[in-house]
Amino acid sequence: MLLKKGNILLTIFTALAIIISGFFISSCGETQKSEEVKQSEKTEQADQAAETEEQIEDKESIKIGVIGAHSGDLASYGIPTINAATIIVEKYNAQGGINGRSIEIIVEDDGCKPEMATSAAVKVVGEKVNSVIGHICSGATKAAIGIYKESNIITISPSATNPPLTQSGEYPNFFRTIASDDAQAKLEVDFVLDVLNLTKIAIIHDKGDYGKGFAEFVKQFLENDQRAEVVLYEGITPGAVDYSAIVNKIKESEAEAIIYGGYHPEASKIVTQIRKKNMKTVFVSDDGVKDETFIKVAKEYAEGVYATGPMDTSSNPLTIEAIKEHEAKYGEYPGAFYLNAYAAMLALLNAYEVSNSIEYDDIVQTLRTEYVDTPLGKISFDEKGDAIGIGFSMYQVKEGRFVEIKQ
Amino acid sequence: MDYFLELFLGGLTRGSIYALIALGYTMVYGIIQLINFAHGEIYMIGAFTALIAASVLTFAGLNQLAIIVIAALAAIIYSAAYGYTIEKIAYKPLRNAPRLSVLISAIGMSLFLQNYVLLAQTSNFLPFPELIPEFEFLKPYSHIIRPSELFICITTAVIMLLLTFLIKFTKIGKAMRAAAQDKTMAMLLGIDVNLVISVTFIVGSATAAIGGVLIASHIGQINFYMGFIAGIKAFVAAVLGGIGSIPGAVLGSLILGWTESFFTGYISSDYEDAFAFLFLVLILIFRPSGILGKKEY
Amino acid sequence: MTTDISASKIDGIKKSVYTALWFMFLTFPIMVIKVNTIDNIIIWRWENMFFIGAGSFILSFIWRYMISKNEMKSEDSTGILQTFSEKITSEKKIYIPIIIAAAVFVIAFPFIFSMYNTNIMITALIYVMLGLGLNIVVGISGHLFLGYAAFYAAGAYTYALLNHHFDISFWFALPIGAAIGAVIGILLGFPVLRLKGDYLAIVTLGFGEIVRLILENWNDFSFGPSGIANIPRPPLFNLKLSLSEAIVYLYFIMVVLCIFTVFIIRRLEDSRIGRALVALREDETACQAMGIDKTKIKLTAFALGTTWAGMGGVLFAAKTTFVNPSSFTIWESIMVLCIVVLGGMGSIVGVIIGAMILILLPEYLRAFSEYRMIIFGIVLVLMMIFRPGGIVTSVRKNYKFELESK
Question: Which of residues 138-157 of C touch B (CB under 8 A)?
Answer without folding.
Answer: 138, 144
